[in-house]
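Side project, low priority. Logging it here so it doesn't get lost.
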Amino acid sequence: MSASFVAKRLREPRSRAWANALALLGGCTLLCLCAYSSPVQTADWTVSGIVGAGNHVAVVGLEALVPSGFGDTLSEQWSWALAWAADMSYWWARNHENSASSLSEVGLTPVVALRRAPAAGASYYVEAGIGVHLLSHTRIDERQLSTAFQFGELVGTGVNFGDRGQYGVGIRIQHISNGRIKEPNCGVTFGEMRFSYRWD
C-alpha cells in the first residue's frame, strides 16, 4: 500500500467523518467523567519546560497545568484527574533555506491524566488531551498550515518523584493541524520532552 494511496484515503469525506466522530466521542466521554467525578486533592500548579522536534521543526516552550477539581479514585492504586494546560512555545525550522523559519504559538488543552499511587518514591501517569492553538504565522519550513487557528491532540506518559512528588519528567507526542478547515493542511507532529515542577 503506497503512501499516496493512504494520503488520498485520509482526504476522503468518510475519513473526515470518522475523525469528527472520534472527537465527539472523546468530548462526550470527558463530560461523563466530569459529571460522575468526585473532588480530588491535587497540586495547585505544575510548570513545565518543553523541548521537542518533528517534521524538520524544533520547538521550545513553557506550560502551566492548573487542576480543574474534577477527578476520582478508580482503585487503591489508580486515580484520574482533569487539568487545564496553557502553553506558549517557539517553533523554528531546522533547515530554513528558502522557507519560513519560525513562528510563535499559544494553546489551551484540557488534559486527562491516569495516575498510579506513589510507590518507592515515584508516581507514574499517562495522559491525553484535545485542545486549541493560535499561531503567529501559517507557514513553517515548507509546511503550509493555512490557518492561525489550529487543533491539537496529545498523548504522553511520565513520572513524578521527590519527597512531595514535586519533580517530573515526561514524554509526549503532539499533533497540531487545522482539522481541514482550509487546505492545504500539512500539520506538524512533535515528539516532546517535559521537565516539570509542581507546588502543593
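Brief comment: Residues 128 and 155 are 4 Å apart (CA to CA).
Revisit when time allows.
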